[in-house]
Design a protein that fits this description.
A hairpin with a 4-residue loop joins β26 and β27. It is globular and about 70 Å long. Strands 3-4-10-5-9-8 form a six-stranded mixed β-barrel. Strands 2-12-11-26-27-13 form a six-stranded antiparallel β-sheet. It has a four-stranded antiparallel β-sheet with strand order 16-15-20-21, covered by helices on one side. Helix content is 14%, strand content 30%. By secondary structure, it is an alpha+beta fold.
């Protein structure tokens, strides 16, 4: 089954033609600002939303070929969303999409209205107002890459208007459904010019229902920009034109005013100097979860002392459970429970700050920082070693967060490796350049290249 899954995933790449990008020179790349919405969720709220997201994602894993498996998204179930302002159609219509490395499908909320005065601009896509909107035919190979409704209309190969219908449901019963289509998008390049990307495949969602796609956790977004490893993700569609890589720098959004984070499509992440300082680790493939960016975590150190964690704790088992994922849609970090308990116990012994009188709900280690001007000086330093010798050494602010006045808590949580996976969330990634090199199947990271503008 493993070899069949990989074969089908490779074959599916050829079903989707490379996106046609006009007016871009060979040395340019795409630069999209990553936006945050206010107010930000509290750490306790972030923990609840993160746990919900990971629970949903763990329910999805099935050992089936990629071209037959549901296209799924975890973005709407997460708390740590970063948004991209995408201009779609001709003339362009601006919509705010969640940027999510944990999903593949690009989809937007759509309206088939003729008199659209009841809808506010920039809240929904109007395909009737675009001259380049093209529904995909139901027998087009593209249609095989998305799940259809249970009661989908029978595909008529001779009718020109037999469109491709898609539908997928979230674990909580939420769903989005509509037409799978192609459109032109307008994107900014590194030189500040507009570039027009033709024939972007996306889901035009005429029906969305449920908390996952319309509730508070969706945070007012108008859709999802999937950046996963599947052939229909935004990263895949654009990547083949831009060296099949993308990168981002997630800046500290607690600063005021918050600096701008950027999503880079192409070979422009941080410039040549930053890339020369990247540490690389191989990307792994989990046939049960082909969307995610898995890496092999080998060890964790506290103040330079490597913890005694058995290597099997980090492995992906025969059912696709376990392993470690780098995910932009999860806020906190999650570690397999045996490793987590050892990290918490060791940090508790080494920390030089008083333990808080009361724990913030959901957190196992909190300290009192009242009267301490620079608490990071008294917090033990964590290091994570990945396969290939890449060492990730985040500053304390990436794993200790203020949960209440004068209280900071360890922003790492436990996960059962038998039903879930460890996660490097976006809080842990802050201040680092992360480069996803899909051609070489590797992940690079560096603290250089994320300088404030």
């Amino acid at each position: 089954m493993f070899h069949l899954t990989i074969l089908c995933s490779l074959l599916s790449l050829f079903l989707l033609p490379p996106a046609n990008l006009a007016a871009v020179s060979d040395d340019e790349y795409l630069k999209l600002p990553l936006l945050r919405k206010s107010p930000l969720p509290s750490p306790t709220q972030a923990l609840a939303l993160d746990a919900r997201r990971l629970h949903f994602l763990s329910l999805r894993r099935k050992p089936v070929p990629f071209v037959k498996s549901p296209v799924t998204s975890g973005a709407s179930s997460g708390s740590g969303q970063y948004f991209v302002d995408l201009r779609i159609g001709q003339p362009p219509q601006s919509l705010l999409l969640i940027a999510d490395t944990g999903s593949d499908l690009v989809w937007v909320k759509c309206s088939a209205c003729r008199n659209c005065s009841l809808h506010s601009p920039a809240t929904v896509f109007f395909p009737r107002h675009s001259s380049t909107f093209t529904p995909t035919h139901c027998y087009d190979p593209l249609c095989r890459l998305v799940p259809g409704p249970v009661r989908a209309p029978r595909c008529n190969h001779t009718r020109i208007h037999s469109t491709c219908h898609y539908e997928y449901a979230y674990a909580d019963g939420s769903l989005t459904s509509g037409l799978f289509a192609t459109e032109t998008t307008t994107l900014k390049t590194s030189s500040g010019k507009d570039a027009y990307l033709k024939s972007v495949a996306f889901g035009c969602g005429f029906r969305t229902s449920g908390q996952s796609v319309s509730g508070a956790s969706f945070n007012g977004a108008h859709g999802v920009m999937g950046l996963g490893r599947g052939p229909i993700s935004f990263a895949s569609q654009l990547g083949r034109r831009f060296g099949n890589k993308f990168s981002y720098c997630l800046m500290d959004y607690t600063l005021s005013p918050p600096p701008t984070s950027y999503l880079i499509i192409g070979d422009g992440g941080g410039g040549g100097g930053a890339r020369s300082k990247l540490f690389f680790t191989p990307l792994l493939t989990n046939p049960f979860s082909p969307t995610f960016y898995y890496v092999r975590l080998k060890s964790v150190s506290v103040n330079g002392a490597k913890l005694r964690i058995h290597p099997s704790v980090w492995e992906i088992d025969g059912s696709g459970n376990g392993g470690t994922v780098v995910d932009s849609g999860t806020t906190l970090a999650f570690l397999a429970d045996p490793a987590y308990r050892l990290v918490v116990a060791t940090v508790r012994r080494r920390i030089r700050l008083p333990i808080a009188a009361e724990l913030t709900p959901g957190f196992d280690l909190c300290v009192n920082v009242s009267g301490v001007s620079k608490p990071e000086k008294f917090i033990p330093r964590l290091k994570f070693e990945f396969a290939g010798g890449a060492v990730f050494a985040p500053p304390p602010r990436n794993y200790f967060v203020e949960t209440e006045e004068h209280v900071q808590c360890l922003a790492i949580q436990s996960v059962n490796p038998k039903v879930g996976f460890s996660v490097v969330g976006n809080l842990m990634q802050q201040g680092f350049l992360f480069e996803f090199d899909r051609d070489r199947s590797r992940l690079g990271f560096s603290r250089r290249g994320c300088a404030l503008p």
